[in-house]
Amino acid sequence: MKLPAVSTLSMVLVLVVGKVAAEADSGSQGQTVTVPPANPSSTDPLPFDEPTVERFFTAVKSQLRCGYPMFGVPSLVPLKLSYTLKTSFDLLSLKKISVMASNITVHGLNEFSWDPSRTRFTRTSATVPLSFPNVTAFAHTSLNGANGTSFVELRNVSVRLDAQYEEKDDLLYVTELSGSILLEDAKVKIASLFPKSAKLSKIWNKAIGKSLPILVELFNGGKLKIEYLSRLLSGAKFYAMNTINNALNSHNLNFDRLVESMVKFADGTSDSLQCDETAAMTGDEIVGWLRT
């Protein structure tokens, strides 16, 4: 299950690798001969320097506050979406619920860690696992006309980001973005779920929270089909891929030049792509794909 914010975040995470340098020495008549490295296969795993990648992610956490205004990406800390969700469902045949959610705000996207042991880079693909201890979303909600502020707290979120990319005419292009998300636990408070019974609302909020990890796992495995959510995620992926490829093209980056750029980003050099947090976008520029 891919989240919009996660798709955006993958813009700056997806291609972080260390440079590949290999030399083989052989002795001949007392002389040392340096053999040029063979070109690795595009599918061979590439080594990476963990301290450099760690510095990169530290820089990313700061960058999320700024966003990338030059590419239309606003601040993601917090992420604000000016989008109104409208849907309805039957609560176990007990109650017909019409839901409207707006002014959605997501906190916690800059608090994450990565797992080097499960990270993999090649010249054509990347897999990066991330862990978020706490992601919380607030929204103004209306249930059958009863208004209130609802929230969802996701605890110990494991995210796997996958990307496929290729070079053409000395430029790098992302051809596919995917991934998955798993939850350990969730807490839900839907305002005015049962306006006349606070006790019943508490029971159902707890039940919904406990069921979320199971529902997410079913969605990941394709055993749960939610057409509306599938359309939403498809739009998010389209937006993310266009944003990434626009950035790669704008800076004339192929795979090797991107690696150099990411190292500069990690080291915070003056010619890196980091931006000043005072220039952070505070509007809702990210919601264009949500209107599709």
Describe this protein's structure.
The protein is of the alpha+beta class. The protein has one domain: Bactericidal permeability-increasing protein, domain 1 (Super Roll), CATH 3.15.10.30. 30% of the residues lie in helices and 34% in strands. The chain contains five helices and ten strands. Strands 3, 4, 5, 6, 7, 8, 9 and 10 form an eight-stranded antiparallel beta sheet that branches. It has a two-stranded antiparallel ribbon with strand order 1-2. A hairpin with a 2-residue loop joins strand 8 (125-143) and strand 9. Helix 1 runs parallel beside helix 4 and helix 2 packs across helix 5 (255-267). The longest helix has 24 residues, at 227-250. Residues 1-36 and 278-292 have low confidence and may be disordered. Residues 1-22 form the signal peptide. Residues 27-46 are annotated as: Disordered. Residues 27-44 have a biased composition (Polar residues). Keywords: Signal.
Structure in a nutshell:
The chain has one domain (64-291): Bactericidal permeability-increasing protein, domain 1 (Super Roll), CATH 3.15.10.30.
Kindly list the characteristics that best describe this protein:
single chain; alpha+beta; eight-stranded antiparallel β-sheet; 34% strand; disordered C terminus
**Count of DSSP strands:** 10
Helix content: 25-40%
CATH-defined architecture: Super Roll
Major sheet details: 8 strands, antiparallel
Signal peptide: 1-22
Region (Disordered): 27-46
Keywords: Signal
Protein name: Lipid-binding serum glycoprotein N-terminal domain-containing protein
